[in-house]
Amino acid sequence: MDINWIAVVAAAASSFLLGGLWYSALFAKPWMQVAGLTEAKPEAAIQRLSLAARLCWR
User: Fold this and answer.
1) Per-residue DSSP letters for 1-58?
2) pLDDT tens across 2-58, in order?
């Protein structure tokens, strides 16, 4: 089975760019509101989300 590495890299890059656009320019405010983040002090909420992600990963 041959793997088209150019397609793999292109898919990964497009996914990364689309995700960045999605969570920054398009839906940043609603996402922050649902996630419990504020623009003033996002550190604590980001740490909670990071911990939750780590716990779910294991």
Assistant:
1) ----HHHHHHHHHHHHHHHHHIIIIISHHHHHHHHT--SS--HHHHHHHHHHHHHHH-
2) 999 999 999 999 999 998 888 777 888 887 788 777 776 666 667 777 877 888 876
Instruction: Count the helices and strands in the chain (H runs, E runs).
Output: 3, 0
Task: Specify the pTM.
Answer: 0.48
Residue 21, token pair as written in the block: 């656009």
**CA pair distance 31, 45, nearest whole angstrom:** 12
Joined tokens for residue 9: 């890299």
Radius of gyration in angstroms for the set of CA atoms belonging to the chain, rounded to a whole number:
16
Listed by start position, the domains of the chain span 5-57
